[in-house]
Amino acid sequence: VQLQASGGGLVQAGGSLRLSCIASGRSSSSYSLAWFRQAPGKEREFVAAISWSPGTTYYGDSVKGRFTISRDNVKNTLYLQMDNLKPEDTAVYYCAARQSQYPSTQRTEYDVWGQGTLVTVSS
Question: What pLDDT is recorded for position 29?
Fold first, then answer.
């Protein structure tokens, strides 16, 4: 499977953005999917993950209650709805896939990565 993320951009603090990640190739429905992010000078950080079915979700502590991960297996698309954005959410956001029905919060557990999309939140 190949992944392509989009939807990043510049937004003011308190605003919203929705990221998308289209999966192509082999059916993504057998994969768990996740979002990670990497700010300049920092390690890649877990944001959210979702199982392939029935959609169990996990969130990093810094985004709980503000971000929502979802997927549409018909459209082979992963989403990340980001609300109440903060300047510290500024990062390149990556989607990732893991060939397991069980998602993980560890980046080393993911086999396939998208190219990343930049989110910048101004104060």
Answer: 62
